[in-house]
Fold this sequence. Notes:
Helices cover 39% and strands 22% of the residues. The protein is α/β, with parallel strands linked by helices. It folds into 2 domains: 5-79 and 386-438, Urease, subunit C, domain 1 (Roll), CATH 2.30.40.10; 81-209 and 274-375, Alpha-Beta Barrel (TIM Barrel). Strands 1, 2, 3, 4, 5, 6, 16, 17, 18 and 19 form a 10-stranded mixed beta sheet that branches. Strands 14-13-12-11-10-9-8-7-15 form a 9-stranded parallel beta sheet. Strands 20-21 form a two-stranded antiparallel sheet. Helix 2 packs antiparallel against helix 17 (443-460) and helix 7 packs across helix 19. The protein starts with a strand and ends in a 5-residue tail after the last helix. Mean pLDDT is 90; it is low at 7-14.
Amino acid sequence: MTAPTAQGSSSGTVSTVDDADIVIHDAVVVTVDGDNRIFENGTVVIDDNVIAEVRSTRDHDSTCDADRVIDGNGKLVMPGLVNAHTHLEMTPLFGAFSDMELTEMMTRMTALYDDFWTGELDYLIEAGMELAAVNFLRGGVTTVNSMDARPQAGVDAYAETGLRGFFGPSISDLFWDHPVDEQLDRFRSFTEQYHGSYDDRIRATLCPHDDWSVSGELWEKCADLAAAYPETMVHTHLLELEESNTVARSSGGEGSLELLDEVGLLNDRLMGAHYRVADAEDIERTAESGASVAHCPSIFCHWNVDPEMQWTPVPELRAAGVDVGLGIDDHYWHDSYNLFGEARQARLAANLQKGATQFDSVELLRMLTIEGARALGVGDEIGSLEPGKRADLIVLDWDVPKFTPSTNVSGHLVGHATPADVETVVVDGSVLLDHGTYVTVEPDAVQKRVTEALERFETESDWTFSLTGSDSPGRLDVAKSLPKRGPAHMLSRIAVQSAKDALPFAH
């Protein structure tokens, strides 16, 4: 897929630059529009929080009387990045898990969730959400889609920072020990309070946790909620493990997607993260339904438990017409805020598993932007630089040796770009990062709150932290904190169903 260089003006209503809010001129402009046009010397005009023009630069652009004129010489302008799937609440524990063995990491993480859910660690969550917002803003991530136990802290942090966020409380009856009705009530109150708030930058999502941690009975209740709140996306983990289909069969379905289809959740409002074990039938069913996928390559490269396990069939999904966005997932598990890096990891992992040339650079760039936006149901609002869309964009320093020569711009972006290259961030027409300076948040204050929160956590728990890493509680202490009823029920289901599946007459 080739990205053409644009020479003329884009279509759309042309405004007067003198009356505009922001004019960025003489920049390399990467539109990620339907034609993947790139303006070698382009101008972006923003007015009333939306993009008014995207075109070649004209003589008057640099001297116009717009409220804000940004010289784009030596800069590149592109849509803001969309982190299509993530979790934010454990951000202060960045680096605490990454050197652990997988089982150790999972048990220690799970042991913390009860305190997250009950509010015992709200101080840690709140500081972590602020830190995540600061770091993702600095890295050009203008939209996140996050599933957390206490998402209201994310709303507060992202609303203050000015970023765009999709948030929802995770719901599970096979992982948590908390009453299902209470979990569903949390979704209702959260949605009614926050959906569409802060000039529609914050939207609520319905988040059944995972197809291996949600029973058929709970899927049905979630379907009822989806019908009652038709404007919300449904955000879940799907086909992550072989156990995904096993748990679905224990609930009477033929498989995970078949079960969701039966309850009425497999449609264009569904965004499923991971899809590692999706087969050809799953891909076809997903494409026909209009559902979308979030691909998070780095975390599975970091924590791959089975080298023989199928890799996420992203090329096949995209070939079938499924929108696939890229996500960082649990950034504190593998020590990365770098969404640009996910594009590189997606290419390398797919090539290693399936052979070279699985993606070209334009495809990866689209997965970072417009396809992530489409996966969240907002591709008509953000994700590309086109007249009428909300002004979410980032400006990179382009006049540096690593981007020289300026050929194959998309290749440079997905191969070389890092968060450090991002200079300016605009969301909804407001400048949030101005030539590297935070406008809406004080990073020093955030750092101080995170440091204090971690110190408090250290004094109130058996965790210790140092410059060389962390020491976690012993196995006995961890075991005491783990949920009992839910996981036991889940493991029992998996064991019984696996035994049934192994019987010759069961097929």
